[in-house]
TrEMBL record, chain A:
Residues 1-22 are annotated as: Disordered. This is Succinate dehydrogenase hydrophobic membrane anchor subunit. Coiled coil: none annotated. The lineage of its organism: Bacteria, Pseudomonadati, Pseudomonadota, Alphaproteobacteria, Hyphomicrobiales. Keywords: Electron transport, Heme, Iron, Membrane, Metal-binding, Transmembrane, Transmembrane helix, Transport, Tricarboxylic acid cycle. It is a multi-pass membrane protein. It holds the Pfam family Sdh_cyt. The gene is sdhD.
From TrEMBL, chain B:
Keywords: Heme, Iron, Membrane, Metal-binding, Transmembrane, Transmembrane helix. The chain crosses the membrane at residues 29-50, 62-83, 109-131. InterPro entries: SQR/QFR_C/D (IPR034804), Succ_DH_cyt_bsu_CS (IPR018495), Succ_DH_cytb556 (IPR014314), SuccDH_FuR_B_TM-su (IPR000701). Part of an enzyme complex containing four subunits: a flavoprotein, an iron-sulfur protein, plus two membrane-anchoring proteins, SdhC and SdhD. The complex can form homotrimers. It comes from Ancylobacter crimeensis. SUPFAM superfamilies: Fumarate reductase respiratory complex transmembrane subunits. Belongs to the cytochrome b560 family. Signal peptide: none annotated. Its main location: membrane. Pfam families: Sdh_cyt (PF01127). Membrane-anchoring subunit of succinate dehydrogenase (SDH). This is Succinate dehydrogenase cytochrome b556 subunit.
Length: 132, 132
């Protein structure tokens, strides 16, 4: 079977998929925007909760942070923010780190860091909620 | 520079130092810098939550750190970075609709972002210090 254009090395299948040479298409751009939008209300609400907690003794802080509504908001915020910062930092790494080895290390380190921060935070909130 | 045989003498594309610094390009890089600062700010927030989940003692230590001069400066910087990055994100949303690229509009948007972030941060901290 012949190609569409005489010079293209791209297969017909890859054209239909429309994901380009990086194989992920516009997925990152889209998720950056979805999480950015979710971040606005979630981060503002989380900020309000944390300002409430600031300076309170432990028992009161636990009562505020562990309230189901506060805990749910905090978990949603952490989920959205850590996804957003992972794909955001990936773009920054791809822009500035060009040596192949260092780039792969930084990209993997970014995934590890964001996943660890997300799960540690979510675990902490659940523990606070269910009883310290 | 090594030249592969037969490669054309192409002009190099001009880089940052060749352009006159402008507000719009400064705001672009500040959006990236604040994004990276917030990346580590998320870690600090989670560290605070984990301390709260560990024990009242760990919570007291974390609260003491947050309440210290350095802690307050970090939190002040964090809220500014957050508000600035959020306004910058909203600017991106406006651009995503195709609006706001004109010579006047993009300058106005940049001014709103920096002015808005400074004013809102000061208002927020004034409110916090008044109430707390
Ligand atoms: C604590 C919360 C946040 C963190 C840790 C964070 C982190 C980041 C990072 C690391 C980047 C990549 C920077 C770059 O590519 O230049 C980024 C980009 C971006 N952020 Fe955030 N961000 C946060 C909150 C927000 C919020 C609330 C918005 C809401 C409007 C937002 C909107 C955006 C947008 C639109 C981009 C992409 C910019 C572009 O396409 O060049 N971010 N963020």
């Amino acid at each position: 079977m012949s190609n569409h254009s005489g010079t293209s090395m791209r297969t017909t299948r890859s054209r239909v998929q429309g994901l380009g040479s990086a194989r992920s298409g516009t997925g990152h751009f889209w998720w950056q925007r979805v999480t950015a939008l979710a971040n606005i209300p979630l981060v503002l609400a989380a900020l309000a909760i944390l300002i409430c907690v600031a300076g309170k003794p432990h028992a009161e802080a636990v009562a505020v942070l562990g309230h189901p509504l506060a805990a749910i908001v905090l978990i949603l915020a952490l989920f959205s923010v850590t996804t957003h910062m992972r794909i955001g930092m990936q773009v920054v790494i791809e822009d500035y780190v060009h040596a192949e080895g260092a780039k792969v290390l930084a990209l993997v380190g970014n995934i590890f860091f964001c996943t660890a921060v997300a799960l540690a935070g979510i675990f902490a909130i659940l523990k606070i909620s269910f009883g310290v | 520079m090594s030249q592969t045989p037969g490669s054309a003498q192409r002009p190099l594309s001009p880089h940052l130092q060749i352009y006159r610094p402008m507000l719009t390009m400064t705001m672009s890089i500040v959006h990236r810098i604040t994004g990276c600062a917030l990346y580590f700010g998320t870690f600090l927030l989670v560290a605070f939550l984990v301390a709260t989940a560990i024990s009242p003692r760990a919570y007291e230590t974390a609260s003491w750190l947050a309440g210290s001069i350095v802690g307050k400066l970090v939190m002040f910087g964090y809220t500014w970075a957050l508000i600035h990055h959020m306004l910058g994100g909203i600017r991106h949303f406006i651009w995503d609709t195709g609006a706001g690229f004109g010579a006047v509009a993009r300058e106005r948007l940049a001014q709103f972002t920096i002015g808005g972030s400074v004013v809102l941060t000061i208002v927020l901290w004034a409110a916090i210090l008044l109430v707390k």
